[in-house]
Design goal:
Number of strands: 8
Strand order of the largest sheet: 1-2-4-3-5-8-6-7
Largest sheet: 8 strands, mixed
Shape: globular
Radius of gyration: 18 Å
Structural class: alpha/beta
Number of helices: 10
Helix content: 40-55%
Distance between the termini: 40 Å
Strand content: 15-25%
Length: 288
């Protein structure tokens, strides 16, 4: 497969590596490199090449699943991380396509990079009660087509949980979509967030993205974003058709020429990924 353009990646990568905290955390530095690599791609194929290059480097076997839905053709990327053969499935995913303007960095190279970092962690130290797969959806920006196609495939195994990432590029708050306000996973995440001194905002109100393909089929799903805590009310206002007094940064950046690595702030990435990983490990252990 075609490799990402090294000369294209280099200027952005140097900028990202100069950001605060990059030298302090291998996870943060790796996340930044993957955000930069995926962001260079202006179409799904080249963005997918950056993803599969990282999976190859991690020694994770991957496959493509082509699909057609609503007259459009796309390709989802799937990878198995292993686990007990008869165990229920944990699926973790993010969309990797972008709109025509900008570089799709916040929306959604940031979420893709988060999934890749979790894949590395869960491969290094597997869960004990669940098999794990990661998925990268195509054509989310055209109506969640990739995730809907996956869910609607005949005889598809229903995951015990689908965990989605979309817009994971800056901020001090882990924003979580959960249909239920109080679950063992939320309680674990809250404890971990408090320990990390990271904001945590779970709730059912959340922008539309790939978790909806699962929920609409009656399958359990949650979704995560990393944003500024002060943005959340404004984001929800925009998606409900209202105009907030101050336009949240997310709404200024996504689907615009500003969606580049220049807007990324990795200051809390290490904490956010540690909180999600801790929550998933506790959730897994509860099923043993």
């Amino acid at each position: 497969m075609r490799a990402p353009c090294t000369l294209c990646v280099l200027p952005w990568l140097l900028t990202l590596l100069a950001a605060p905290a990059a030298a302090d955390s291998p996870t943060t530095s790796s996340w930044q490199q993957q955000v930069a690599a995926v962001s260079t791609g202006q179409d799904s194929r080249s963005r997918g090449d950056a993803i599969t290059a990282r999976l190859d480097a991690l020694g994770i076997q991957w496959r493509t699943e082509a699909f057609e839905r609503d007259g459009k053709h796309g390709s989802n990327l799937l990878a198995d991380l292993g686990g007990p053969a008869d165990a229920p499935l944990l699926l973790i995913g993010a969309h990797y396509d972008k709109v025509d303007v900008g570089h799709g960095t916040t929306d959604n190279a940031s979420g893709v990079a988060a999934v890749l970092e979790l894949a590395a962690a869960l491969k290094s130290r597997p869960l004990t009660a669940h098999r794990v797969q990661v998925a990268f959806w195509d054509l989310e920006e055209h109506g969640l087509l990739g995730s809907h196609a996956w869910v609607e495939t005949p005889d598809r195994e229903q995951p015990a949980l689908y965990v989605n990432f979309d817009v994971f590029g800056w901020g001090d708050t882990l924003w979580m979509m959960s249909p239920d306000a109080d679950t063992p996973l939320i309680r674990s995440l809250r404890r971990a967030a408090n320990a990390q001194k990271l904001g945590f905002a779970p709730g059912e109100h959340y922008p539309p993205t790939d978790h909806l393909a699962f929920l609409k089929s009656g399958w359990p799903a949650v979704s995560f974003s990393l944003v500024g805590g002060g943005e959340i009310d404004g984001i929800l206002a925009v998606f409900s058709g209202k105009k907030p007094s101050v336009t949240p940064k997310v709404m200024q950046v996504i689907h615009s020429p500003r969606d580049t690595v220049a807007e990324i702030d990795a200051g809390h990435i290490d904490k956010a990924l540690a909180v999600v990983e801790r929550g998933l490990r506790d959730w897994d252990a509860a099923d043993r």
